[in-house]
Amino acid sequence: xxxxxxxxxxxxxGLMRGAAEFLWPQRSLVSGQRGAGKGPLSPSEFAAIGxxxxxxxxxxxxxxxxxxxxxxxxxxxxxxxPRWDRARAALVYEAAxxxxxxxxKRSGRRDGxxxxxxxxxxxxxxxxxxxxxxxxxxxxxxxxVSRGFNQSAWLAQGIARRADLSCRVDVLxxxxxxxxxxxLSAKAxxxxxxGAFKVS
Length: 200
Known about the structure:
Elements: H1 2-23, H2 43-48, H3 75-79, H4 95-107, H5 113-123, H6 125-129, E1 133-134, H7 141-147, H8 151-163, E2 166-167, E3 172-174, H9 186-193, E4 197-199
Parallel strand pairs: 1-2
Antiparallel strand pairs: 3-4
Helix pairs in contact: 5-8
């Protein structure tokens, strides 16, 4: 009896979801057009995005041409080991993905969060599985007030829900307001945020 009710409930949800998609088709995360495809990206938009997958450098997550086995590092990480243990990225930041990232960061567009946290969780699944806690990078309070949201916190909360982990937005504090990282080299970015964070 209970499984029959569950089946009917799932069917009803599916019908409602289908009706909602028909009446209010999702806007493309890239073009902004409604009904571009089933979901947030048209097939051509999805194909244009450079998703990152194994084999990648164990330290920085940069793609590697050959699978050199577990723990393999890229040449830059061997030459100059990073200060972190491991990092992963879901996709290459280029023309096809830039709009998705900037719409979230600058405009607070949240309708792609579920998809984006799925990409991130898939790319960093092993790291997330080993984590005890998810902690987003904080904004300086003046930037948080002017912007009204912290997109890192939204993404961290979505990943934490997927992984059934706690997310704490109060663990890290930003001591000082830093200039935007846009347009800076990797070295300048490191210098820009040096000493900017502390554990609360």
